[in-house]
Amino acid sequence: MNCVTPLGLDLQHNWTALLEENTGIDVHTVGSFENIYTAKIKNLPTVQPDLTYLETMLYLALKPLIRSKILHAKTGFILSTTKGNIDFLSEGKSEEAELNKLAVKVAGLFGFITAPIVVSHACVSGLLAVSVAKRLIQMGQFDEVFVLAGDKVSEFVISGFNAFQAMSAKPCKPFDAERDGVTLGEAAGAILVTKSPEHALVEIVGEGAINDANHISGPSRTGEGLYRSISSALNEAGIDASAIDFISAHGTATSYNDEMEAIAFDRLGMHEIPVNSLKGYYGHTLGASGLLELIVSILSLQHNKLIPTKGFVSRGTSKDVNIITQKMDVPLTYMLKTASGFGGSNAAAILKKVNG
Amino acid sequence: MDSPLYISHYCKIEKGLISVDGNVIFHAGEAQFSDFIKQAFKYQQLDYPKFYKMDNLSKLAFLSAEVLLRDEEDKEDIALVLANKSGSLDTDVKHQESIQDAANFYPSPAVFVYTLANICGGEISIRHGMKSEQVFFVSDAFDATTIFNYATYLLASQKAKKVLCGWVELFEENYKAVLYLVERSGTKLHTINNINQLVKN
């Protein structure tokens, strides 16, 4: 696994920065939005002149995983993104902005034999893409799947979140009493999902992705879809909620999202389980977020180290949540990753540490 | 895993025509998409004012699902597996127009929310109370193998009771929707060949 973010262009730099509790959020100007807080990568190198900014991020994220691999007919490639190369629209090039075009181009850089699969499911895309990989491997379509996720900060998305009045004027404060919206970010993450337990870091023991059927732009007040997604994952894993050692929540720092998550966790009796949101380090990286935060959570499992929720000071949800406020060394075996997004979407996955 | 799965019903919308299980139920002639879909909606005599707020992709997906699911009971566990080529590009272009010119800047939340491909699935879920598994794929052409395996997984793992699958593509005036319902009873077998024929013909 690997990631490319404002905190570093590889996994090790990200982990070091997280342990120092550095944030990737800073003041930037994006299009007509001057001096706003976003988590933008500052020094993205040029890899090839014909790659867009996002393609470069994706390339750098996946490259170290592919290095010595032989890509065969049972090797899958899944790309998770919400907006892909959306900047092409400002140049009137709508065809160039197609998500599948991006996937085919990136697949071509690495020489995948199988056709790419694109998962574009709002802010749960990155986590759902991992479930899709697992499911297609279980069905025998693939032996292994490279899951790559990425989105960049764009005027397109900022203007939309701003129109929704969902953007925070300051760096976001997940689950906090004074939270007032998201900080947008950009990142790419890559992970290899395989049926071979050899060299595996974690096992995906259960997952679910269930819709709220409630509202297209707001989460269910009762956290119904998230509750059901987590229940489905626990059921598949065959474990009780109490077996989970920590939760990496979506935690966007909007009033509605964090409240909904607290309610869903409470309904599942998970209010005492340590929870973090990584949005205070990375902002909301949209289609990358679920995968990026899963990757960081795997590092947490490996190192038996809980990462605190940056930006959180005091609880601002109606239900108790055990927000992690400082780094902690604790033995970790099971973790739950969740995500929720527009369209009433939710996703949950439970990982079990197998080696290390 | 071993019990056979079937395609119980299917619906197609293209070229001003709506058919269910191969029988034409509505035909609008040469109308533009927005007129056609409005006429078709009225013809269904549905009391669902939210329809008029949807973007064109959602209207297309909504109506396809409507004619298939209206007589279904117990819809909560019907999963939704959708795919298309253009994602939400049709609405992306509209949002881009609203921000293209700094002097004439008017982004709207009502448009922006539809700049995600899966929103049309969310609209179907809300309408039918489907608190169920969902995914949205984007590919150049219908990827029958992936959609087949994914739907089969959902039923075999008991993560869904039935699965509504299909292709919902719309960009400007080019549109095509083919949805089909996969379940444990029916006459047409759920095979990669059969779904390919349904969607690509």
UniProtKB/TrEMBL annotation, chain A:
Query: Which Pfam families does the record match to this protein?
Result: ketoacyl-synt, Ketoacyl-synt_C
Which superkingdom does the taxonomy of this entry point to? Bacteria
Q: Does the keyword Translocase apply?
A: no
List, for all copies, the residue spans of the domain called Ketosynthase family 3 (KS3).
1-353
Any one biological process term the GO annotation gives: fatty acid biosynthetic process
Family according to the record: Belongs to the thiolase-like superfamily. Beta-ketoacyl-ACP synthases family.
User: Under what name is this protein listed?
Assistant: Beta-ketoacyl synthase
Q: Which organism is it from?
A: Sphingobacterium olei
Automatic annotation (TrEMBL), chain B:
Per its UniProt record, what SUPFAM superfamilies does this chain match? Thiolase-like
Q: Which GO terms describe its molecular function?
A: acyltransferase activity
Would you say which domain of life the source belongs to? Bacteria
Q: What is this protein called?
A: 3-oxoacyl-ACP synthase
Q: What is the species of this protein? A: Sphingobacterium olei
